[in-house]
Specification:
By secondary structure, the chain is α/β, with parallel strands linked by helices. It is built from 10 helices and 9 strands. It is 36% helix and 13% strand. The longest helix has 17 residues.
Length: 261
């Protein structure tokens, strides 16, 4: 029980190193590294700084997922692709070895159904789609969106379920979401108190239940990077998630590659 006691506020490890602590993840599938298109990195220089931070942590592959949120972040595959190309060019110019793919984080709003129906999504490899809800109120369209995505042959992933405060007293809903065919992605900072004690408790409860399929940094800025370094210096994240079937390292493999493995 000592490991869990540490996580719930007991004695912390004295080890302050973070170098390569997240190499086992392989892919960061949720972040806001692309410059100037949402509330994440404002420019290429900041994006490069965050990427160097990921590399220090052992992550050398990323899928950038800028917000698509009607009326707030009106991104399209074209705007996202353009920002991606700008950042890739900067990485090449500066001789930084980092594999960068792009997709999006889709808010469940009045626009999303239209985007799904008209094949206007910016998909991850192997047709994964990252979706999110408002932190203020539950989206009544969650299960219909999951159904619509699955019918199109896409695999939905719900971002940071532990951060939806309105579910904290209804953990059965997470089983219902999983049973509907949607996967769950943990924000790594949620296992600390970065988002608050209630979010931490929800995250650790879902971890103990083996509910998470993916992890992500959800990195927007240097504060996230510094906090993440602190988390992995204090806790053995891989050991914490040992009972969760984390798929980051293999999610983009082809069927043939998985067969060979």
């Amino acid at each position: 029980m000592g490991f869990w006691n540490n996580l719930f506020g007991g004695r912390k490890k004295k080890n302050k190193t973070y170098h390569n602590k997240l190499s086992w993840i392989t892919w960061d599938i949720h972040n806001h590294l692309l410059p100037g298109i949402d509330d994440g990195s404002p420019d290429v220089d900041q994006s490069i700084e965050l990427i160097k931070g990921l590399k220090d942590l052992g992550i050398h592959r990323s899928v950038s997922t800028p917000h698509v949120m009607y009326g707030v972040h009106n991104n399209t595959p074209q705007t996202i692709g353009s920002a991606h190309q700008n950042l890739k060019a900067a990485l090449s110019t500066r001789n930084i070895d980092f594999e960068l793919k792009f997709s999006a984080e889709y808010m469940i709003d009045d626009q999303l159904g239209f985007l799904i129906e008209n094949d206007q999504l910016c998909l991850m490899p192997n047709k994964y789609v990252l979706i999110e809800m408002s932190y203020l109120s539950e989206s009544k369209g969650l299960f219909s969106i999951i159904k619509n995505l699955l019918e199109k042959g896409y695999q939905p992933i719900l971002a940071h379920p532990e951060r939806y405060n309105y579910y904290h007293n209804n953990f059965k809903i997470f089983e219902e979401i999983k049973n509907a065919g949607c996967m769950l992605q943990l924000n790594l900072l949620s296992i600390s108190k970065y988002y608050g004690e209630h979010v931490k408790t929800a995250a650790l409860t879902l971890i103990r239940a083996g509910m998470y399929d993916f992890v992500g940094t959800d990195m927007h800025h240097n504060r996230h990077l510094d906090a993440l370094k602190g988390v992995v210096s204090k806790y053995d994240v891989r050991e914490l998630l040992r009972d969760c079937p984390i798929k980051n390292a293999t999610m983009f493999e082809t069927a043939q590659e998985k067969k060979i493995a």
